[in-house]
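Hi, here's the filled form for the chain we discussed.

Project: internal
Contact: R.S.
Residues: 504
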Amino acid sequence: MKTQKFLTFFLTLSLLLSSVLLPVCATTVTTESATAETETSETAETSEESDAAEVSTVSTASGLNPISSILTADTATDSIEVSITGTAALLVDENTRTILYAENETATVYPASTTKIMTALLVLEAIDRGELSLDTVVTITDEANADIGSDSSTQNLTTGEEITVENLLYCLLVASANESANALAIAVSGSVSSFVELMNQRAEELGCTGTHFVNPHGLHDTNHYTTCIDLYLITEAAWQYEEFQTIVGTDEYYVPATNLSEERHLYNTNLLLSEKKTAGYSYTYAIGVKTGTTYAAGSCLVAAAEYEGRLLFSVEMGCTNYTAESGDVIRPVYTETAQLFRHGFVDFYALTVVESDELITQVDVTLGKDADYVLVSPANDVTIELVKGLSASDFDRVYNLPDSVTAPISTGDVVGTMDLVYKGTVYASVDLVAISDVEVSVSEQAGAMVQNFFQSPLVRVMLVVLCVLILLLVVLLASSLTRRNRERNQGRRVNRNNGGKRKR
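And the returned structure, exactly as it came back:
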């Protein structure tokens, strides 16, 4: 009975000890964790404050590289002067996706017929999916002409006329026929309204944050708007299709006769492409894309030019035509776009400032079997758009690496990053990857596991409890043995006493 009471006391004491020590342990762990988090947070905040003072990262929409603010008098004394009269403009080097010029590039503007770039993109994607082909014959319906005014840009496609998707695309992108946009919309989605829903969905998928469409042609509506950045993103997506490049780069085209029309002769509305329609605006390296004009939108132009392997996209919106003293109509959108292209080709050049086979540095490795460090290199080449007069040596390299990494390490594992910084601005970042494998040392790993095991506060508490249990068990056993010996001795004395009485 006493033994049971002792065991009960023993277990109760152990539980009480655990209940006291475990919260202490938990508090210790929490405190240590909180301290570590605080230290980490403070380090991060300090780092951020330091970085804010020394390095700033220019972020732009949809992963575009920063605007080249490095164009300064001391680095580009012979730069092309850029003067934009439109409400917004953008110039992008597509090879590096670097913005070379931007003015109100995220401001809301009316797209007019540059809308048709999105319309063409959706048609080409439908062809990609096998829903249409360039040879599919479309019959023009009343809906195709329903919202087309008499003064609208048109190719006079009439109800019942049969024409292929390919020729509708030429009417859309070369001659800017509004009814062609509607006809293609119906061919893709069954109705104009359903197609408009698809336009807005696709714009969102492309990362357009300032765009909303209400029709496929661009006739003015206050709820139909976009931005220069968004138009660039849409054009970039459409440019992936060779058919699109071919059509928007065509200066004139003959549409074969149809069941209701004789042959149509189309001239491209983009005057950068040719002198055939209007002289004085052609640009040798221009290869597309699309014009747009309404009273509310002004004169708009999304254009592409290529020179010595470099592809530039420009967007200028909201220009105003005017009449010169000679009586000629002056169209600044073309001269200013050509000026933007010259600025891009003359003042900038692309240079590979980091190569993937460079050995950058070494990082310590813990638990490595045959190595205690690993070498790291850039994951890929880094090409930056530079102003003439600058070189790779003008950029500082800022490494973001841990003090050490733990084996195993595989070739290609990302260990850290490297930033390319010029005058406090990060112009490019690249992952730094291991260039070799480092196997884990089983013995060191086991030792580390054992060390970590015994360093655990919970394990330490359990060890204390175990020691107490062992100690109490020893005490219990000693007490039990003592009691048994006492009982045995008492039994012997009783037996002797009883024996002595019997002898008498």
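Let me know if anything looks off before we file it.
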